[in-house]
Amino acid sequence: MAVKPIDPVANVRASRREQSTEAMRHRDRCQPYNRRAWNVMRSVKLAVDPLCECCGDVPASEVHHRNANPWDNAWSNLASLCKRCHSRTTCVERRPQPLARCWATYP
Ligand SMILES: [Zn+2]
Question: Residue 88 is part of which domain span?
Fold first, then answer.
């Protein structure tokens, strides 16, 4: 029977790993969603627009910020989306954009 060796610094290592993970987390992106105002706005939006605004025939379960600013809860900035459409939309928005080239400066 194999015996797993005891790691004397396992707790220290786990603690440091957790600290570094917490340090990398973007707190500013999480805070807007932990507020009561957002929960109310989200519930109202899903009640008024229960279907996904992207595909149209699936019940919406998430609310998307069109301008990618989580603090902007203006009605025109919100879109009811299903999980699939929201993931796709967010993925496209966060995709690194290619460097803008100004062809007019080339001879
Ligand atoms: Zn959809």
Answer: 32-94
pLDDT over threshold 90, residue 93? no
Residue 48 forms part of a structural domain: yes
101 CA to middle of ligand 1, Å?
A: 34
The amino acid occupying position 16 is: R
Tell me whether residue 102 is in a domain.
Answer: no
Q: State the pLDDT confidence band at 107, using cuts at 50, 70 and 90.
A: very low
Ion ligand 1 — residues with CB < 5 Å:
52, 54-55, 58, 82, 85
pLDDT, position 106: 46
Give the pLDDT mean for 78-107.
76
**96-to-90, 92, 100 alpha-carbon distances in Å:** 12, 9, 12
- Beta strands 62-65 and 78-81, pairing class: antiparallel
CA of 25 to the centre of ligand 1 (A): 28
Q: How far is the CA of 40 from the centre of ligand 1 (A)?
A: 22
- Tell whether 65 is covered by a domain: yes
Q: How many domains does the chain have?
A: 1
